[in-house]
Amino acid sequence: MSQKDLLYKKENNRAYITINREKQRNSISVEAVNLFLEYLDEAQKDDEVWVVCVTAAGEKIFCSGADLAGSIGKAGEPAGKAFQNYAKLLTKISKFPKPTVARINGHCMAGGTGFMLACDIVIARDDIKFGTPEVNVGLFPMMIGALIFRNVLRKKAMEMILLGEKLSAAQAFEMGLVTRIYPLESFEEEVEKVLTSLTLKSPIGMKIGKQAFNAIDTMPLEEAVNFLSERLAEVASTDDAVEGITAFIEKRQPVFTGK
Fold this sequence. Notes:
The protein is an alpha/beta fold and 259 residues long. The protein folds into 2 domains: 6-199, 2-enoyl-CoA Hydratase, Chain A, domain 1; 203-249, Orthogonal Bundle (Lyase 2-enoyl-coa Hydratase, Chain  A, domain 2), CATH 1.10.12. It is built from 11 helices and 10 strands.
């Protein structure tokens, strides 16, 4: 039986989605994109999943981008359809109602940058490289550009896109592509700390909050503030909010249930 291009594992209120194409430099296949969409649906419906962590097999490459020599062009689907599904996936990750963490355990290029930027928190090793090298093969980082411009100053983004040069983890951090960088020896421990912290928060509170912030993207200020005041009232009426405030007053750790 052939291995799946993407793996799904659930433990400790976390879902791990792992790109599983180490021999192909963890490049993006049609199967990987389709499975990614499927696994996100599964994680969203599962009340026992509070956080999603996106990572990759091996320790060298997180993702090298689209499988240009393989499945993207030869999987029986028109290239346009494959690109549309990838665009759908980026939107789905970006608007996912539960916290998402990208564990960047290897070099991240091209389309892999899209997976990374679509997540809420990006934790990377300090010895890896980032970049959008599409321009070097006559292509252009189209869909991920929408995410790049939402995270990086325009001129720095255009420099990265047009030159197609590799960036260090320190440069990526300075630009805002990643949120945290750690050396190899402490990387796993630090990722675990973030995931543990998220699973100690109220899942219903984070869900309502993320959905609210996604909804106000295009709203005028007054409309956005009024909308968020209504969402705050919604959060405040949850059992978790009552538990959180009670625990604060009693000086103890809250026990959230997601209700």
